[in-house]
């Protein structure tokens, strides 16, 4: 049995665990050292640090403090890792805790976080998903279940100072183009709720003012929310500081491409069993700027899909120029309309798109002026047949259950 | 043997074939009628109508007349089809002609068409791909071959007048925001090179001035360039006019998600074996705005990939807000840099991304401010191992061959 | 376009084509020579040489002359090939003729050929399968259609004299253990209907008396009837004579593991597009006795199955010792009983098992005294849901159609 | 968290656990009752009850007491289950214990158990396989690792008295044809080492004399050793006694088709998370004699294979009539010869075939006199390239390590 290097207490506060941090900064001290070739286990809390409960009340989603996220376990140092190397990480397995076999999916209020379809679902809603062996189902979304494509939403190495400064500079520049926007254009450093791991005293206070928020994916990987970076895959991370400093969290039992619900995926606490290696000088050898990875040999194999197209004409009929974001939004809205014909509420359909292993493909990006995106909805996750027929759809879902909503205050 | 309803002459001009047209207009007369349940064969020229030759000179790509594209075969009428129905099309098979077993891929000059990476590849280049049974390879791009995911880039039903007007209005509005741009923001109606099929005289002249260009995908489908709408798949098209009026063309032997080279895919002439059916009133029954489709049970199964990430920070380091287009461009550029380490020129790497069955996934669209896109490069298409190793890449490609380039005049 | 080295005339007699032969003998003259690296096309008649017709009368199956089979096209010589080499054959594509888009499946009479379930289906029956693009369906077996896993049932190099003698000796020894058996234990040389290709005169007469029959698979490959040796695959054949002498035939549009109906698969005439190469001394290098091969990257991907188990207790309840043949027969009989609950006749169910891409797995061969075999029936080939439910099966098939039967005379 | 209904102590004797039994008999009392729709966890010891140790000495394999096997956990009763029903079992997950992350593979001595290739490997050998997350590797077989296709080798419902008598009668009849054979033709009831669960006193003594051994698969399923009846799959078991009486054990981390090494697979202790349901009267509704099952949506996806053919001519050159058992043995021997060219010992190659997810297909069973079987060896489990090339194989394995052997005493 591999050693568990970092343990978490789901009943305590993440702030009390000095092997957890919630900002990116080069000076956060490494908490455990391993050798290349070692395999070990890392536990993590859920991304919010336990703010969301397993109940039928979405007010916790509405009132979430997003300045706290994401709580990451680490950094782990790998002996011999130096800037310019590639840190090779095998995800030997990822799972939930036996005494915490559930996860949550939510839509944030447009006033506090928002999401991909926030104009259509502006108020906070929450669904709870039970984990039954390799499968999941929800008391709030009947008629579906599927095998988990379990993965960490967030993992990467510590940036060096130069990269950190670059992140802060470019994000601030964007933020300043519309500083009053809700939701904001970027999440800037915010010292008040920073957890700087084992940094203490004035050093920690100073670092907290400049530590990059964990929200976006960046050159080091970070919050990529790539569903296929799942257990069984192998990832090659750029190293910027001595030892690498690998941190991780934001575990998902399952998620669709795009993590469109933002309080996205089926969010859970859990553990990762990792093995590490090094490619010395790998960044230059392979011309690497962002992580690259290889898919897992073992993951859910849902082959049959209904595929929805979207183009970059928005809900108001306005033409946009090769905008894949808008095209994918249209494909998602098309899928939601389709699912409603079988009896689902819009919120249930939206929750399915955010949690099931749907694929989002960039299908066309050159045919001016319309980008084309496709949303691939697996048919096998439904208890009934959702394929189109000459007879038309049957309302299998009776509408008695919906996703709990908490009105804005 | 199914009947061939539309034949083409690869040695003649597409303008001389009145079962071909190159604009969308509700009044283009249906040239063949079929019954629901029928299967039949339709031949098509390549999208440019034969402007590009099987040689080693890219000047034809540089000088292409894009106002002529795309030459479509049709419209085919289906008896009983009425506005609001869904036309069910089974792609029983799609293929090249036995005497024309080749296709082309090109990068247009930035001055005449451009492409996804036109800032990086601003001049015209062309590669020729031979078709050998189910496989393809190119004398301009050594070291790769793969099985074709053969599909029509463009297929859809005729719009009605209201939809046509909507298309023209919204695209003109976008065009007018920067009318002098090169390449333009939208391709507007252009009568001079219009081919209105069997419309004749003044009717044809008038329709030519308002016929929508075939370049973008739209509500009816059209130029979606979705690689997975391939032979063996089933598509459900919205019907807007009596009989449907199904037209098609722009056959591709293979293409990557995004068709990033624009003169994209491996472009070819060929034939489609189709079977048609109807879902009466299907648009309302299933809430359909754009076509939906089901994947094929038989298509190339390249499972192993190297996956490249890209985020929405552009080449100059500027931060963009959740822009998947830019994120995917970065993923593509990352893949090109990687392939260059094995000896490929940038142009060869770009050609591979445009022609091989690469996947482009919308991986994250909510983690402000960075969108995250992934480019999945199948490893099995290479004659050598392109996986990262501790030793670093080996230059398998000696650089003696490159993709022909024609300088701007 | 690759050259067609061997052409066939479906309206003529295979005996009139001297590029066809129906026995294995080292002295059959090579009819075409190719270079390593060449690709070329070979046409073949169906395995019976046109004895079976596209009609609804099974008397041709009942009266078939099995001493004539299989009519093979070849031998093709590869320059430089010598005994001990491996001949590398890429199946670039395989297909039916455009003017002969159909195939047949039959059960031979127990008195003339028999088959895997001949005790259960002792009389001749025949079903005709239409080829529609990549798919097939039958007017005799309603409710099913699928994509073809097209392959040659029979391909291999000429044996040398020593190998030929070994074949004849060991098969004669088996035959002699029960010489009067019907069907016989082995098909011995039979000069009367032999077609020795370009051999003429006394040489041909002598060779006909010793030429091995083409019925069984042997060390060189031959009549393996392996459904996965399909278009897109690569096979490595042992070479025994100078030039190799590759011959082939017995094309199948589709077949299940085991080819259980014997007049098995969906038998058709057609063509193969091949590419050849050599591994010099490959037999010793890799310790090769029988051919090895690699699967195709493009073949039907039917993933969902109902899996039937069978054990080596026969229909009479008698226990056999680890007999996989009997176990697989029980699994097939179990599947037939299951399909009958949906309205199929036994003959229709048997025809489905012989023609659809069912898998037959050797599941357990050590748990004395029972072997365990499994029959994997793809569910996606049915127009209706054949999964078990609490409600029980619904008779989707009304029984009005059956597989034509010709009574023994 | 589901309840664990049956717990085991890996440090104690299986005989001391009255929720374990090692014979099939209708009167073994049900130890736990569940409702249809319930999910629950069952722990099991390894099939030998801990006789085999995690060390480098094969004497425990040589000296194993096979009369004790298999130790099964159960029987579990399902309320409402009656003879003629189908018991629907979802394998929600299956796994090893965190403190016992290893398994063993062995070849029994020909004098004590034997195996599929016992003539070639007549003495006891043992390899130990470590479980690292979803993957396994062995210190005795270098150069390979793969993801586990975890499954119970043995599961089924209690027989009724009539079925038990039929089993004993037919197996005794076979045994009596050669009573002195080693290994024996069948494993007959043997009271001395019987563990009859909660049966006590004279009842237990009598039942032990007639309880069927657990070695072979039979009508109820039992020791099928079907690798694809894995976690995530759904199985439909015939019910013969009130409550069903479902028992299970013999967990495998991985196994190839055929379980050819007999002390086969990677044998381990562990747990199953099951969910149960009922189809009332399902045996008659669907014509079920043996269990049927549906594959898992999540299992290792090794797609690329080298495929070895075998025909029913034995090692001595003798011709057998359509004997799939012999054909598969030849395919296995061919694969072993091939792997030896890369440096593996024969025993290592044999161990790979027994433990890796190799497929064994019944390819041809009608082409007299040769059956044809194929062995599919996944290439992706090797750390190096095992495909054939013009250069020939490279000895990646240096032969310093081998599978421990214990000579017969």
Per-chain topology:
4 copies of one chain form a homotetramer.
Chain A: E1 3-6, E2 20-21, E3 32-34, E4 39-44, H1 59-62, E5 72-78, E6 86-95, E7 102-107, E8 124-132, E9 135-138, E10 141-147, E11 151-157, H2 161-175, H3 201-210, E12 217-218, E13 221-222, E14 234-238, E15 244-252, E16 262-268, E17 270-279, H4 282-286, E18 292-294, E19 298-300, E20 305-311, H5 324-340, H6 346-355, E21 359-364, E22 372-378, E23 405-406
Parallel strand pairs in A: 1-4, 3-5
Antiparallel strand pairs in A: 2-5, 4-17, 5-15, 6-14, 6-17, 7-8, 7-16, 8-9, 8-23, 9-10, 11-13, 11-15, 12-13, 14-18, 15-16, 20-22, 21-22
Helix pairs in contact in A: 5-6
What is the compact description of this entry?
Four copies of one chain form a homotetramer. The first copy, chain A, is of the alpha+beta class.
What does this structure look like?
- The structure is a homotetramer of 409-residue chains.
- The first copy, chain A, is α+β, with helices and mostly antiparallel strands and 409 residues long.
- Chain A folds into two domains: 292 residues, Acetamidase/Formamidase-like domains (Jelly Rolls, Sandwich); 102 residues, no CATH class.
- In chain A, 15% of the residues lie in helices and 31% in strands.
- Chain A is built from six helices and 23 strands.
- In chain A, strands 2, 3, 5, 7, 8, 9, 10, 11, 12, 13, 15, 16 and 23 form a 13-stranded mixed β-sheet that branches. A six-stranded mixed β-sheet of chain A has the order 1-4-17-6-14-18, with no helix packed on it. In chain A, strands 20-22-21 form a three-stranded antiparallel β-sheet.
- In chain A, a hairpin with a 2-residue loop joins strand 12 and strand 13.
- The relative contact order of chain A is 0.20.
- The model of chain A has no long low-confidence stretch (mean pLDDT 96).
- At the A-B interface, helix 2, strand 12, strand 17, helix 4 and strand 18 of A face helix 2, strand 12, strand 17, helix 4 and strand 18 of B.
- Strand 20 of chain A pairs antiparallel with strand 18 of chain B.
- Chains A, B, C, D: It holds the Pfam family FmdA_AmdA.
- Chains A, B, C, D: This is Amidase.
- Chains A, B, C, D: GO terms for molecular function: hydrolase activity, acting on carbon-nitrogen (but not peptide) bonds, in linear amides.
């Amino acid at each position: 049995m591999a050693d568990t290097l970092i343990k978490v207490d789901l009943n305590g506060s993440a702030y009390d665990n000095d092997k957890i941090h919630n900002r990116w900064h080069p000076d956060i001290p490494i908490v455990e050292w391993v050798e290349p070739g070692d395999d070990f286990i890392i536990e993590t809390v859920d991304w919010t640090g336990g703010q969301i409960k397993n109940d039928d009340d979405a007010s916790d989603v509405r009132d979430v403090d997003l300045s706290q996220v994401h709580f990451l376990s680490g950094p782990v140092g790998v002996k011999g890792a130096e800037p310019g190397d590639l840190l090779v990480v095998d995800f030997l397995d990822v799972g939930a805790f036996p005494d915490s076999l559930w996860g949550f999916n939510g839509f944030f209020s447009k006033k506090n976080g928002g999401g991909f379809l926030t104009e259509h679902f502006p108020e906070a809603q929450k669904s709870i998903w039970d984990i039954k062996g390799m499968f999941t189902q929800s008391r709030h979304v009947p008629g579906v279940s599927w095998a988990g494509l379990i993965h960490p939403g967030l993992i990467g190495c510590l940036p060096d100072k130069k990269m950190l400064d670059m992140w802060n500079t470019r994000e601030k520049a964007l933020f300043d183009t519309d500083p009053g926007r809700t939701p904001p254009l970027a999440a800037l450093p915010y010292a008040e709720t920073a957890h700087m791991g084992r940094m203490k005293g004035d050093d920690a206070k100073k670092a907290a003012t400049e530590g990059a928020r964990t929200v976006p994916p960046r050159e080091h990987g970070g919050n990529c929310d790539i569903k296929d970076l799942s257990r069984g895959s192998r990832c090659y991370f750029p190293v910027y500081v001595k030892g690498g400093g690998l941190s991780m969290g934001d575990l998902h039992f399952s998620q669709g491409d795009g993590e469109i619900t933002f309080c996205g995926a089926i969010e859970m606490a859990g553990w990762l069993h990792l093995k590490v290696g090094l490619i010395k000088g790998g960044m230059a050898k392979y011309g690497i700027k962002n992580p690259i990875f290889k898919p897992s040999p073992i993951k859910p194999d849902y082959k049959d899909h209904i595929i929805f197209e979207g183009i970059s004409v928005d809900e108001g009929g306005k033409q946009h120029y090769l905008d894949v974001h808008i095209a994918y939004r249209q494909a998602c809205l098309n899928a939601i309309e389709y699912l409603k014909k079988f009896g689902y509420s819009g919120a249930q359909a939206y929750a399915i798109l955010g949690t099931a292993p749907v694929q989002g493909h960039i299908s066309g990006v050159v045919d001016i002026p319309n980008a084309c995106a496709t949303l691939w909805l697996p048919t096998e996750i439904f208890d009934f047949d959702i394929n189109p027929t000459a007879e038309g759809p049957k309302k299998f879902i009776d509408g008695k259950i919906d996703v709990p909503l908490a009105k804005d205050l």
